Write the structure tokens for this entry.
Amino acid sequence: MTEGIVFKGFPLGEADMIMTIFTRERGFVRAFAKSPRKTKSRFGSALEPFSYIRISLWGKENAELPRLIQADIVHPFQKLREELDCFLRVSELLEMTFMLIPEHVRQEGLFDILLDTLRMQEAGCGNQKAILCYKIKMLNAAGFMPRLSGCARCAGTGRRFYFREGSILCDNCGDPLSGFELSQGAIKLFETLRLWDWSKLHRVVPTTSLAQELGRLLDLHIRYRLEKGLKTRDFMDKIRTDPDTYPA
């Protein structure tokens, strides 16, 4: 058995599902679940999005589509599904992770950080500090960590981030009229979250403006690396521009 966090399910036939689950020991896996959509399914509500579950899979370790034979709820995270804002924030984190982290790659440390992030969101939706830190740790695990500690070419001082380079360049090495300009405060916040252990996160108290500035950089960097938008982010933007279409 292993622990997992339910990402999403895709209907198959009248009652079956193909589940995508982020597991502690095997990373992202897709598994076939027999009849979870039936009223008296043995899975009950264990396969709801974001549920923290303990599962058993039947099939070889790297099988393309093992069968899910058991799923027991450890914690349902029901509140995250009941509030639209929380649902979208967490959906975005899982979508980013799924698109950047290869399947069947063990990510035990990242799994634990994601689980803590979900707990923090459940305790108070909108914990931007936890979301920022998770994105940084996730980018590190994926091999796409941005460099903000100085010019990537000459190690000089700079504050403009170039997405193609994935790093800051000084005015001599880059174009001073382009790039994403960052404040020193946002750079310091990034370095703090990058270097500090997750257990010290409570000691970081960023201002709202700095958190928003760094959050925008990370989101644009992730979008650039993915070479396409995120479905969750596109939906969130649509809600903001046309709120009457999706009332709270």
The CA atoms of residues 3 and 54 lie 4 Å apart. The mean pLDDT is 90. DSSP finds seven helices and eight strands in the chain.
